[in-house]
Amino acid sequence: MLPETLVVYPNGNKKDSGSGYLSLYVAIDNSTLVAAHQEVLADLRFYIFNNNERKYFTIQDTTVWRFNVFKTMWGFSQVLPVDTFKDPKNGYLYDGDHCEFGVDVIIPSIAENSELFSATEKFYNPTFTWTIRGLSTLLKDMYSSDVFTIGGRSWNIQVYPNGRGEGEGKFLSMFLKLNGEETLRPYEKVYVWAKLRVLNQSKLNNVQNQLDSWFSRAAPSWGFRKFISFDDLRDSSKGFLVNDVLMVQVEMEAVSSTKYFP
After folding, report:
1. What domains does the chain contain, in order, with CATH numbers?
2. pTM score > 0.85 for this model?
3. What region holds the MATH domain (predicted)?
4. Which of 9, 37, 110, 137: disulfide with 23, CB 3.0–4.6 Å?
């Protein structure tokens, strides 16, 4: 365990945009870091006792802090407004000028297995459009688009021209499928927030459905069996099927990823 010190700025750390606020930090001994030639990742949780509520006000970040010889002190520059902290009516100062601070410093063991889950919501090109020609001549149950990559994963759109399940014979069915070349761990899941669309080629309203699903090895595809009715699809005045050409699209709005350590 490396030696650490709780650092309190009662009137705020002006060098860290903390003017007017109570600032709290943890500092690790620089000589220890130099001798060890290392950096330390730590979770920090700061406490301030509130005597009125007999509880601790707690502040914690969602990410770990990276200590090294170049950055030996981390924390929060704006914990509480100074006026709030110093007003005895609020309970942080009591029995005169008495107050209590605390901090938990947790350094995860590098030998432990861990997972880092994150979701990406902005992509360079979030849409993939598939043009299907000669829809009325397609005889197979299911057709799959070319592979495309969004959010670090490879995907296909699947279309069932004659419908699938309860949509068979009355609706076109459409699904998003995690490509078979993607490798997932047995328990791993990929979250997707996306829109599936049948595009209107007359520039009227598209037909779209929102996908909010977890993909896995056991459930690699998600979609809609009743995506668009044959009545709407075959009505030439509605603009979904033009010269026997159908255009479908997916717009990815969020895709999760999981990193495993070690």
Report:
1. 4-108 (2.60.210.10), 118-261 (2.60.210.10)
2. no
3. 1-105, 125-252
4. 9
